[in-house]
Amino acid sequence: MMTAWAAMSVCDEAERLTADLVGRVSGEPFEVVWIHNGESVQVEIREKADDAAGDRPGEAAGWGVTFTTSLRTRWARIDLPGREPVQSDEWLIEAANGPGWLGFLADASDLLAGTLDPEMVPAIIAQIVVPRLASWCAVYTAQNDYGPVRPAYLWHADETQIDGLREELDEVQIPSEDGIAVLHIGEWQSLAFPLTARGRRLGLMCLGRRDRFPDEAIQIAEDVGRRAAFALDNARLYAQQAAANRALQRSLLPPDEPTTPGLDFHVIYEPAGETNEVGGDFYDLFPVGEGVWRFAIGDVCGTGPEAAAVTGLARHALRLLGREGYGVAAVMSRLNQAILEEGERARFLTLLHGEIRRVDDGLDIRLVSAGHPEALRLRPSGVVDGVATPQSLLGVFPEVHFEEDDVHLGPGDVLLGVTDGVTERRSGSRLLDDDGGLAKLLAECVDLSARAVAERIRRAVQDFAIEPSADDLAILVLRAP
After folding, report:
1. 29, 118, 354, 477: which has the fewest C-beta neighbours closer than 10 Å?
2. Could you tell me which of 338, 474, 453 has the C-alpha nearest to residue 400?
3. Rounded Cα–Cα distance for residues 270 and 276 (Å)
């Protein structure tokens, strides 16, 4: 039997579905039956035959073939508009007793492993289980092992019912005990599954259906909950590590953009890697007297905590020794000794360090390049030349004597310092600095400001290769007024 409302709401779709099913009959006499199942309409074609089921008919929400002693029934189901899809328990029975269950769980694991964003995991959990296991899913998460759970994500097979369901859930006492709990939410059959990983309670996965939860659905939901909990825990650990790396990286860089009256200065710094692992490149610019500044751009071998220790040591030593009045070469010698004294924890360091002094006709610079990519000077005429003598990198040899190079920047002259994230940017077998590639790029920057020069170099690095860079990048540009 069908109500008039049900018949009118799906009449056209049901007729098309019926025509599709009738077109599959074998020529034997058959009977057409429409059955109203509350939230869906099932169309059945009953005939005397025993051939295979064939392909899915039309846009049916569910379909299949059943047999009796003398009849074969092809059937297809249509969900009525305005109602949430009915869970197909046929697949549950088959899945829980065969490879279908493993396939579903494997797909769920792949989806959960596809993000390391803890804010995304609850949404993925809900969309895995709806509508296959439940009509709706609400995920609650806890900030710590013992804190209260808070709503993180709500999903309903019928999106128009989400707001109403959210209001119902706001009035429900969310259980805090371990194990599966029954929730009392209106006419829904609702269960809460704990999300626990590595002995920590991370939250709850609440599911609701109009009918009773089959044992197979509970079994699969428990397994999904375990996998979801580990995915959420991994995402949180990843996010915490990334946040710690970013905080430590910020602590190793200048806290503020330096004020440099009479000096056009710009720096670009980009850490590589998805988690921005700390270490690698660094830069600094700071005053040591009236009209006198010190600058540095360096690259520590490797990344991680050991590299961060050398980065912090170098940055603070440069500032302290510079303000104590030590010359550039003397600072480099003392920093080299300090790194060597770190013993096995030390990392090699390449460093371009200099002092800038304003003079009437531009800037005078005393410069030391310790194993660092060559510093380049751009003249207003477009001529580019190297201005620093290559010397030993830091942290290798105890007896090293550093010599300062005197460099003058006249009006409009530009000094460029970069780390090997620029010069060794790779595209196939070529490096960006092959055949003087960086000098050629700089030659095209005549009459540009320091910021414009730095940005042009960065764009060239990005455009040189399609794949993301695996190395940190730092670009420092000084321009004489």
Report:
1. 29
2. 338
3. 9
